[in-house]
Amino acid sequence: MPNKFTTLLLGDVYSDSGCGVILLKLPALRKEYHADFVIANGENACRGFGISVDNMNLLFKAGVDVITSGNHIWQQDEIFPFLDSQACLLRPANYSSSVPGHGYCIVGSPSASNSPYMVPGSSAVSAAGGVAVINIQGRVNMPSTEDPFKSISDCLRQVKGKARQIFVDIHAESGEEKEALAFHIASQVTAVVGTHIHVQTADERILKDHTAFITDLGMCGPSESVIGCDVDLAIKRQKTQLPIKAQAAETPAVIHGVCITSDTSTGKALSIERIVL
Fold it and tell me: Which of 66, 185, 217, 276 is the most exposed place for a label (fewest CB within 10 A)?
């Protein structure tokens, strides 16, 4: 039997509600699943739009190891310096190299000592050969970026041989685009998970006997909401088509994500289980 490495991947953290439920429940969730590593998308942590420094610090304090993001990462100017200085805070790799930040990091791999964006990890992470996390953004009905297929190939070349466990967050609107990218790199990575639409899909599976996949992790945020937003305002926006500013719903929060187990010696995914809490 292979030795197992367990990773929790959590959907878009939305507003104070999402941050609060992560702070309150993640420590117990890590214990329940015997999780060795946690990745969460934090691009909606600040009132639904971007992430603040306080949000970032709260998520790390709660037990998140790496924060990924997406198109809303640019909406809080205060986070810009941390996109360069904080190795485990990612923005999509396929934005221009002229903007702040980086699209991948490597945690706990002794073979990555000369790599940028590399940080120490726990003994379990090191024993599993280190963890690489890559953040990519889709192009279908999304802001213009460079080709995600080329960018993911570039990132994989950068992390090759430096981490055995490799996780990809593709932040995208299109399920077709997410699936296509996952199949494109299946057998090269441990898992590909989708974020952005805030609605958890039920298509979790293992591709090519190697790579775990789900089209969208869902959301960590207000339960009774329209993708995190106040219901009445969301209805008014749709009925009137007016540019009414969205506001976060103030309802009890949920956690959506997946638990993935992988082989410590090969990085192959062994199982994927949806989390709804």
Answer: 276
How far is it, in rounded angstroms, from Cα 270 to Cα 277? Answer: 22
Is 72 catalytic? The answer is yes
Residue 247 has a CB neighbour count (10 Å cut-off) of 15
Full-model pTM: 0.96
Q: List, run by run, the mean pLDDT of 10-residue segments along the chain (277 residues).
A: 92 97 97 98 96 98 98 97 97 97 94 79 95 98 96 96 97 98 97 97 96 98 88 90 87 95 98 97
Rounded CA separation 178/194 (Å): 7
DSSP string, 28-81: HHHHHHT-SEEEEE-TBTTTTSS--HHHHHHHHHHT-SEEE--GGGGG-GGGHH
Domains of the chain with bracketed CATH: 4-276 (3.60.21.10)
Quote the distance between the C-alpha of residue 160 and its chain's center: 20
| Tokens representing residue 52 in the block | 């603040």
